[in-house]
Amino acid sequence: MMKKTTLFSLLVPAALLVGCHERSAVNGLTVEMLDCPLGVAAEHPRLSWRIESALPATVQTGYRILVSTDPGDLETGENLIWDSGDVPSDRSVLVPYEGPELESRRDYYWKVRVATNHGDTLWSEPSRWSMALLDDSDWQARWIGYDSCLNRTDTLGVFSRLAARYLRKEFDAGRDIAQARLYISGLGLYECYLNGCRVGEDVLAPTATDYTKTVCYNVYDVTDLLDEGVNTIGVILGNGRFFSMRTVTYTIPFTQVTIPGVRNYGYPKLLAQLEITDSEGNRTVVASDESWKLTTDGPIVANNEYDGETYDARLEMPGWSRNGYDDSSWRDARSVAAPEGRLTAQANPNIRVMDTVEPVSIAALNDSTWIVDMGQNMVGWLAVELEGRKDRPVRLRFAETLQDDGNLYVDNLRGAKATDLYTPAEDGTFSWTPRFTYHGFRYVEIAGAAAKPDLEKLKGEVIYDAMPTTGRFETSDSTINQVYRNAYWGLRGNYRSMPTDCPQRDERMGWLGDRAMECIGESFMFRQALLYEKWARDIRDSQLPDGMIPDLSPTYWPFYSENVTYPAAYLCVVDMLYNQYGDEKAVREHYPAMKKWIDYANERLVENDIVVKDVYGDWCMPPESPELIHSQDPARVTDGRLVGTSFFYRLLNMMARFAAVAGHEEDIPAYLEQAARVKDAYNRMFLNPETGQYANNTVSAGLLSLVQGLVPDTLKQKV
What whole-number distance in Å separates Cα of residue 628 and Cα of residue 591? Predict the structure, then answer.
């Protein structure tokens, strides 16, 4: 299996190996699939590398890894933390560090020597990683904030509204600064500034989780942002998924389940620890505590991922994150209860602005309202430079399509307002982008500007979890190419710390069902492994004590129903990580929870080897008329028992493979024996061997039977 999944033979023409004096080279060193990551929490970080060779059929035959705390020691070979020795192996992906226990905060340097079948022995250039804060005792910071509404417009209601919270602290960094690292978590979302300069390029950070189970913090090197002596740190807290976006109830279509609004975890809060090390190794710690100042009277007077952001430039506080700002009118921050979840360094990259879109046209609806066409359905926001009038709000509304009269079509947004509002402090030009919201849109209605917007001064910023695009697809058929482009944009638009169902309406949840198959196709387009590793942990966090797995995760809607097909995504994601990325750790880590779910399904959902409970069936097959979402024609509807049982058969075979990888060979016979019984029961119940038809002969019934491996060999062609 490992020969199938490693990356040991990336072949490139010799002319592309610029500056390479060897026939081959070792490049692309990563730790936990990241380039020189800060804040690694894994006890045994996994190391990967890539061979580039001008020679055909180059294969790695062995490796040797060196790790030290000083890059100079890698050259001399002295004072090494770990020397793997010469290991005969073709493995070059996710090789675990097996040296002594690693220390909190510490930087580690490493390089690898590779032997190939052509006789080359090649050393890579050194790379590095740093460890996270590995123990609770490493934290001096306390969670701070204010556990109540503070502005008269704040409300936790059907349309929740809460102003952003601004926090600041002046401190003395000392002299001869050698290194400074910031460990920070702001819930729901944060932006951090040092001496007026923004820290990092991440947006909508940190990654979204079920905060009763897991809370993530980020690590930044901020050495270059500090001055000797007095400095100022400032943080803005947005609401994100922490402070509920909605309290209105929502009934899941075609079920009896009503969701009592989006979960609310509390008011925004901050945990921040800045560690400054001088040239002699002395450490100064600036930690969040009650000495920080807090206000909600800043310009972001409301922010909600469904409804948009409201910004009042008249409330701007120039210099609030710099030295000398007068914060005497600000409150003292309060020490607040920590979230229930386990605090851990974030392993997956945050969301970033990953692309831009230039608008293609603008049309006037009236003297003060214009419709901007981006030419492409996208997810993110519109960065604007507009003419405004003092005290006159400028409104930006977002939608995916237009009505026949040229106005926005917003019915598909349901209750989402999808509206940003900016109030200028003076006449003239202003530039602005929101911080704590995002939209799914092609069209933007701009109302209230003092002059027609200039297309060249509008830019769509596309946001999603930072990941490289690793594959592309093109044919001679323009229709097929457009289908691929639609998928590419649709997938990018639904990466929001989890793979979501939609980016525009009042939902945007991590539904499991879609990804049972989709995660595999995505892996050929994007390097999305770290996002899916994170999501698999979300799903495990959401599992109930009896083994039940929800239909979406994180469970911002705590929706659990009795079916196989949606929870199946949990196992399918782990299978994808193993097959596509060689991630054995994912199988070992999740095996107990996956086994627990199989046991739950056998007890609650399976009778006589047939899955008898299913909520969704074939869900959204093409209906008989365009105004319908779900078909009412029994001839089009596939039996839910067939759908669920076909998936369960596949999952049992998966579990047999997982058991081998996870070192639980004793479980393999039971899984294979049950799979054989399920296959037999399935064909006895649904297959007509004379006609080659399954159940009522829908396309889904036949395809699922084939793709899940349930059709007897002698009947495959007939089916």
Answer: 41
Q: Which two tokens stand for residue 433?
A: 């982008």
Q: Coil, strand, or helix at residue 1? A: coil
The DSSP annotation for 173-195 comes to --SSEEEEEEEEEEESEEEEEET
Count the neighbouring beta carbons within 10 Å of the beta carbon of residue 157: 12
Inter-residue contact 719 to 711 (CB < 8 Å): yes
Q: Which amino acid is at 266?
A: G
Look up residue 124 and give its amino acid: S
pLDDT digits (tens, 9 = 90+) for 515-571: 999 999 999 999 999 999 999 999 999 999 999 999 999 999 998 988 999 999 999
User: Which 3 state secondary structure label does DSSP give 506?
Assistant: coil
8 Å CB contact between 557 and 509:
yes
How confident is the model over 630-664, as pLDDT tens digits?
Answer: 888 989 999 999 999 999 999 999 999 999 999 99
Q: In the prediction, which pLDDT does 701 show?
A: 97
Alpha helix (H) residue ranges in 304-437? none
CA dist 457 and 358 (Å) reads 9
Distance, CA of 21 to CA of 17 (rounded, Å): 9
Is residue 417 exposed (0-12), middle (13-18) or buried (19+ Cβ within 10 Å)? Answer: middle
Residues paired with 578 in a beta bridge: none
Predicted local confidence at residue 9, as pLDDT: 33
Say what the pTM is: 0.94
Q: Token pair for residue 76?
A: 């001399």
Percent of the chain at pLDDT > 90 equals 88
Give CA 288 to chain center in angstroms: 27
DSSP count for the chain of H helices, then E strands? 10, 41
Return all residues near 618 (Cβ < 8 A) that are at least 6 apart.
637, 638, 640, 643, 698, 700
Residue 473 is which amino acid? F
- Give residue-wise pLDDT tens across range 401-433: 999 999 999 999 999 999 999 999 999 999 999
Residue 73 CA, distance from chain mean position: 37
Give the DSSP H or E segment for 659: helix 640-662
Residue entry with tokens 């701070």: 144
Sequence-separated (6 or more) residues with CB below 8 Å from residue 275: 105, 180, 181, 182, 183, 283, 284, 285
Q: Count the residues in the chain.
A: 719
What is the per-residue DSSP string for 278-312? ETTS-EEEEE-STTSEEES-SSEEEEETTTEEEEE
In this structure, are residues 398 and 440 in contact, taking their beta carbons and an 8 Å threshold?
yes
The DSSP secondary-structure symbol of 585 reads H
Q: In whole angstroms, what is the distance from residue 589 CA to residue 60 CA?
A: 28
> Tokens standing for 413?
């947004």
Check residue 40 and report its DSSP letter: B
């395809």: which residue's tokens?
703
Q: Round to whole Å and give the CA distance between 63 and 2.
A: 15
Q: How far apart are CA 588 and CA 575, in angstroms?
A: 11
- Exposure on the CB side of residue 603, measured as CA atoms within 13 A: 9
Task: Provide the sign of the torsion angle of the four alpha carbons 505, 202, 148, 154, taken in this order.
Answer: negative
